[in-house]
Design a protein that fits this description.
The protein contains 10 helices and 14 strands. The mean pLDDT is 96. α4 runs parallel beside α5 and α5 runs antiparallel to α10. Helices cover 34% and strands 24% of the residues. It has an 8-stranded mixed β-sheet, with helices on one face. The radius of gyration is 19 Å and the shape is globular. It is of the alpha/beta class and 335 residues long.
């Protein structure tokens, strides 16, 4: 028997709306959005009305207490991920929290400790890893078709100078958090080990927040991941994974419907459209991670092998190192 998973949504912002639209592409017998909470009740009510969600709350505490919710999707601003994750986990809810998971490693450790103590499923929403294209990359590596992975070259850039949440310190800004999380996770997906060395350079904006970063991660045997992520200009936004037997290219690598496989041929997987257009491109593909989360919970698992607790810890450790190397600290680092 298929079992329905009842979702609560923390935050009525654009990414939360996209997640709800993605859920609408999955069977209603498997996924139901039961409640939404925002810091302003009218925003939650408006969101609930549009998306036909039964309950709307004006605080995250009320959502945490809801008996009708199994799992909470957290789509709040970066600096709120830590407190809202703890609130939900300590209230007995499973949690899928948007990336970047938290503002530093200490906070991530706190969240994971709460997940373990409460024996709840918890995952950082690194949605990229659930795309068919990423699964194909994993297959090519584990099946030996790529040979030994020698290098990853990944670029991620858009002109985002006018996007406050990337530019402002109090909103948890910085490209290391919002773009770097993607370039780091794809490198880790390819190499599956902790980098031995990290070398980074970067520039900062008037607030002292990182806006353009280049970083090289070096792995065993001198193998490297070379990445650049920037809010100043559009880059090619591909990830090229080079092995001893060939290479694979993920196109729009953070949400790739397409890849160029080892044979040089393009493969494509297109997710279905939801009830409404999404705010961000290709967000319907969040359906892949949502269904993976459902499968994990039904299996009684507290983590998912594609984005494990260890993966989240390593991603934030690399982010912290890059931030320190370019001289960007936040108030949470001093606590």
């Amino acid at each position: 028997m298929a079992k329905i998973i009842r979702w609560g949504i923390a935050s009525a912002g654009k990414i939360s709306e996209d997640f709800v639209i993605a859920l609408s592409t999955l069977p209603a017998s498997d996924h139901k959005v039961q409640a939404v909470a925002a810091r302003a009740l009218d925003r939650a009510q408006e969101f609930a009305k549009k998306h036909e969600i039964p309950s709307a709350y004006g605080s995250y505490e009320e959502l945490a207490k809801s008996k009708d919710v199994d799992i909470v999707y957290i789509g709040t601003l970066n600096p709120q991920h830590y407190e809202v994750s703890l609130l939900m986990l300590n209230s007995g809810k499973h949690v899928l929290c948007e990336k970047p998971l938290a503002m530093n490693k200490k906070q991530v450790e706190g969240i994971l400790a709460a997940a373990k103590a409460n024996k709840r499923f918890f995952m950082e929403a690194v949605w990229s890893r659930f795309f068919p294209a990423y699964q194909r990359v994993r297959e090519a590596i584990s099946g030996g078709q790529l040979g030994e992975v020698k290098e990853v070259v990944v670029n991620f850039g858009f002109p985002l100078g006018n996007v406050d949440r990337l530019q402002k310190r109090e909103l948890g800004g910085g490209v290391v958090y919002d773009l770097g999380v993607y370039t780091i996770q794809v490198s880790q997906w390819a190499f599956q080990e902790k980098p031995q060395k990290i070398e980074s350079t970067g520039t900062t904006n008037a607030e002292g927040i990182d806006d353009d970063v280049s970083s090289t991660l070096t792995y065993t045997g001198g193998r490297t991941a070379r990445m650049r992520f920037t809010s100043k200009e559009k880059l090619d936004n591909t990830a090229v994974i080079k092995g001893t037997k060939g290479q694979v290219t993920l196109i729009d690598f953070w949400s790739p419907n397409k890849l160029i496989d080892i044979d040089g041929k393009e493969k494509e997987w297109v997710p279905p459209k939801g009830k409404y257009p999404t705010n961000y491109g290709n967000s319907e593909a969040m359906r892949y991670e949502a269904e993976a989360v459902r499968q994990s919970i039904l299996a009684g698992d507290v983590e998912n092998k594609n984005v494990s607790y260890a993966d989240s810890l390593l991603i934030v450790e690399i982010q912290d190192t890059i931030r320190k190397q370019i001289g960007v600290l936040n108030k949470f680092d001093e606590e």
